[in-house]
Amino acid sequence: MNNRVNPGFKKELQKFGMSEQWNECFHCGNCTAICPLSENEVLFPRKGIRVIQMGLKDKLASYVEPWMCYYCGECSETCPRDANPGELMMTLRRYLTSVYDWTGMSRKFYTSKWWELSYILFFALLVIVLFLIYLPLRPDAYLMVNESGGVMLNHLVAGISGDQFIRIIEFGDWAMAIIVAFILVSNILNMFYKIILSNKSFKVPFYAYFTEFWRLIYNFVTQSKFSKCDDKNYWVGHMLLMTGYTTMFILVVVALPAFQTEKVVDWYNWQRLLGYYATFGILFFLTVVTIGRIRKKDIKLQYSHSTDWLFIIMLGLTTITGIVLHIFRLAGLPAATYYMYILHLAILVPMIMVEVPFSKWSHLAYRPFAIYFSRLKQVALSKQYSTGLAPAI
Amino acid sequence: MNKIPSVGIYFHYENNGYSNGLNKQKIEKYSDQIPGVRYIGNSHDLPPIDKNIFIEKLKGSRVSKLLIAGYDPGMVKPFFTRIMSESGLDPTNITLCNFRDYGIMGRADEQMAESLIYCAVMTVNPDEIINKVVKQKNQDTLVIGGGIAGIQASLEIANSNHKVSLLERTGTIGGHMAMFDKTFPTLDCAACILTPKMVDVGLHPNIDLMTYSEVKEVTGGPGNYKVKILKKARRVDLKTCIGCGICSEKCPAKASSEFDAGTTLRKAIYIPFPQAVPNKYLIDEKSCIYVTKGKCGVCAKVCPANAVRLDEQDQEIEITVGNIVVATGFKTFDAGKVANFGYGTFPNVLTSLELERLVNAAGPTGGNITQRTKDKKGNWIFTEEGAEPESVAIIHCVGSRDVNNHQYCSRVCCMYSLKLAHLVSEKLPDARITEYYIDIRAFGKGYEEFYERIKQEGIEMIRGRTAKIEERNGKLHLRSEDIINNKLIESEVDMVILAVGLEPREDAQSLAKMLGIDTNKDGWFEEANYLTDPTSTHSGGITIAGVCQGPKDIPDTVAQASAAACSVIQNLITKKNKTLDKTVLISLVEEYVNKLSEITEDQI
Description:
The complex is a heterodimer.
Chain A: H1 9-14, H2 30-34, H3 46-54, H4 57-61, H5 74-78, H6 85-100, H7 105-111, H8 113-134, H9 162-197, H10 208-211, H11 213-222, H12 232-253, H13 256-259, H14 270-295, H15 306-331, H16 334-358, H17 363-386
Chain B: E1 7-12, H1 24-33, E2 37-42, H2 51-61, E3 65-70, H3 77-86, E4 94-98, H4 110-121, H5 126-130, E5 131-135, E6 141-144, H6 148-159, E7 164-167, E8 182-183, E9 188-189, H7 190-203, E10 207-210, E11 213-221, E12 224-231, H8 246-250, E13 254-256, E14 265-267, E15 269-270, E16 282-283, H9 289-293, H10 298-302, E17 315-321, E18 323-326, E19 331-332, E20 349-351, H11 352-359, E21 373-374, E22 380-381, E23 391-398, H12 413-427, E24 432-437, H13 447-456, E25 460-463, E26 469-472, E27 475-482, E28 487-493, E29 495-500, E30 502-503, H14 508-515, E31 542-544, H15 554-574, E32 576-580, H16 586-603
Parallel strand pairs in B: 1-2, 1-3, 3-4, 6-7, 6-18, 7-10, 18-31, 20-29, 23-24, 23-29, 24-25
Antiparallel strand pairs in B: 5-32, 8-9, 11-12, 12-17, 13-14, 15-16, 19-30, 21-22, 26-27, 27-28
């Protein structure tokens, strides 16, 4: 491991959000002491600031602690030097996302708005062009209204049947999911290598991979660490967003034929209820966060990186176009439904393509894995301590 | 006419708030109008970072000299020396003009700043014009504040056979030092050093002691100040009171004791502490039943000397003095402002001053360190019977070195915390004592050795500020990062001591306004020159001493008080009072310059 001091590192980190405010830190330990999530084996944020001040890039790559931070903001509020450790952890999460991403795209997106915007625009145009050329609106679309007055969504395209249309969309869904999953999984493997394998000072016992596995699932589902922050409402709100998002994801990828039905099902059917729940969950928390980021009163929402806004805007637009699409459909407006469907996909597809593997969304995967890896490390170290093979940390 | 060389002027302002009130544009505009002067820039618009910009500017404006004006221009002189040499000019041709040296703090002092700049351009020493010497009309001195600084200064001046009036706000002199148990690093008994001095003051024929009095108004000028003094009604006659204490025994009203830092109660008619000077009783208006409700008067009935004057009123007197020594001291930081430490909520979270009284043999528990316990009425009080704490934690830097409170270091907290740790371990040898610090600043003679000694005594030193105190099952729960040992510590203690910092008194600003002296951004009185003249102010005949000038420990306070007395005595002996004329006009400078040039022309 290259542990040479590198004072120039701060310039590199600056691109990921925070200015040099953290350089104010005089290491009093206030942040670590007040942090409700800092534990004996995972000490942060102060130690992280030390690593950055020294510019130990390799050590930082194996530094798992930023993922343990849920940004409750207490450290920043009470910091006696206004060094803003909370925001630094946020910046580090952005930086680490780019470190794990072997393709280098994440780094491009975080450090350059134009790269990200052109990437999004490319996918949006791709969706629109593909649709207009290969799946055009049928001329007699105005007839595609069923007896209950709703639009027959799957019959709007000329030349193909409803089943075929569903299959095409489903194919697109799966293709996208597989590409995204491939990048994300390989990034997680890269993260695993950087945190566990590249560190020669400890060796994880084989059984620990299985005995600790439940933590991964448990933390993914409950985000129990988040609930340790003082502001419990924020955790509930985030939970709404997360479950809503996951529900929608399952509905449109796994259960598309059952979700995107020909007939407009009654409101009490599960498809619609789940859909409404997801919409509410996403929209509710998005509104809260947007207001918070504009008002800048809450310390964790005071500093917004361009990617934070982009995530909010993309997700918000996806949700709003989804709602409008639903309204058009219920109102029986076939052509409007068709174009809104394209627009909806033209926002959704680039959002998934940019956010899931390369940007903010990836924390959904990195966080539970970080907890899992950190546990593995702890198990390995405690075993080594008990057998007297403790390394110097 | 003398030819003026072309001078480039650069303004250096610091971001510390000194220059906030100053109309910088006006000064800059003025400086550009002086013939031969070229405005280069100021540090806000053009920070001294990029060399090439300055080199181009200097070459473009064809100057041969550079003048750096503003606050602490010496800070950027090395930068400009390099620039001068790189742009082919004489690097020694740099003149500095420090506004701070002449007390330009921003309150419409632009004219003064302009004059200074003009002086610098004309290469005239501003001291020649600005400093005025006035006659010392009055040989008396007023010392404001009866703490150790005031006592020391009064004694020094009085011993040189000059009259001193010592003004003290409370009922006794002694100040904060009288409250302390021991002094660091020698562990001398504070009272044993201080009380003889207090008695000296009380008995000195040259010292007119005015306790329970405040300054109301200051008029006049250097060498001849008229000071209006409010003598608050003591309601006990100083001459006849024999200090027997019967009144206090019988008095039914109680209030929290100021001298014991609120750890215990005193009567409404009281003597601050047994060694008080003057050793006479006084009545606290706020708690006295006679004053508040109009009936009682037990003290007057029982007094054997007939010294109680229940209907006495406040008096205003006026004295005339030539010099004033300001030694108003400090107040400790209000620990309740740091909500996370729960001071005021948890009964066994104390400030250092409270512990200081608790340790003291004359304190509320007779020197036994005990926890606060609930009495029958449900109040939390200290008693001798209370349980001794098994573990004590001392938290450093409460209110100091913190942007949310005071950014400065209060300088004494580290040392007094070490001292308190020693005193606690002396009384409770089995107690576990832990200090949570950021850095230990053992800066003085014998201090580092004291720190080493304390560490040897088995006191646990943890580098890592705690952030929060919680109460669980009657114990105080602390969490801290142990930075040196790389771990998180969670500990439960019985008692927490908050090492509170020092801050200026609430009315320091109004006093400064009365006296016409400056305060810095933290509220401490500003000296004429921090390095070379730390006791004088920009108002002639007014000197400052002790913590009111900035946090300092007892040795430094005493030293400064003696220094302040020295400059007063110098004024008294020479019968001259040097003062700084802040309303100096540019016309005066011109007059002076013309006079100088006439002389040189004549000589030629």
